[in-house]
Design brief:
Order of helices and strands: HHHHHEE
Number of helices: 5
Structural class: mainly alpha
Amino acid sequence: MGRLFVIIATLAMALTCHAQEEAEQVTDTLRTDEVVNDTLRTNEVSIMIDTTKQVKVPRDWSTWKPNPQRALWLALVVPGAGQIYNRKFWKLPIFYGGFLGCIYALSWNNMMYKDYSQAYLDIMDNDPNTASYNKFLHLGVQITDANKSRYQELFRSRKDKYRRWRDMSIFVMIGVYALSVIDAYVDAELSEFDISKDLSLEVRPTVIQNRGGGNPLQAQSVGLSCFLNF
């Protein structure tokens, strides 16, 4: 009877140890599953973060179309900015060269106008100390009472001439500025103008209805009609 009790106790202890080992295995399995799930979640979050990043695609300039209103305002604010916005860089030397030429002509004519104006004022007065007109005379030439009236008219005409050229330089510079603005706007507008490659001219015979005329033979006439496809 004692042996049977010992055997039963031994079996109970063995079953208890086996149950504990199975419980520990299940716990380890659950922990492993949790670690795997955490890793998968981390990977999913990483994938989601990576997918939310915006990839910057380079602009295709061959299909880019400028905005006419923006080109107009840029050209009004800064001369040549409309051509830069429209990516027509080859036009910049033309307009900037025009501006520089007008500025040079304006400064030169203004300087000559001031010099001849002062010379004209000096030759018109009777003060011998004011003789700035002598720098315009050729070597050895002097102004006397015999030729004074001729030089007075000469200095007056040159003063008026350089004043007109100075004013003309201002108007030309304004014209170059206006032309740059118009060119920027029109160029941007025509960037969306569809020019078909099918450009052809077709000539067809046609019957032309004549106005009036009671004679049926003169009511119609035969001619040619031209059709332009574009």
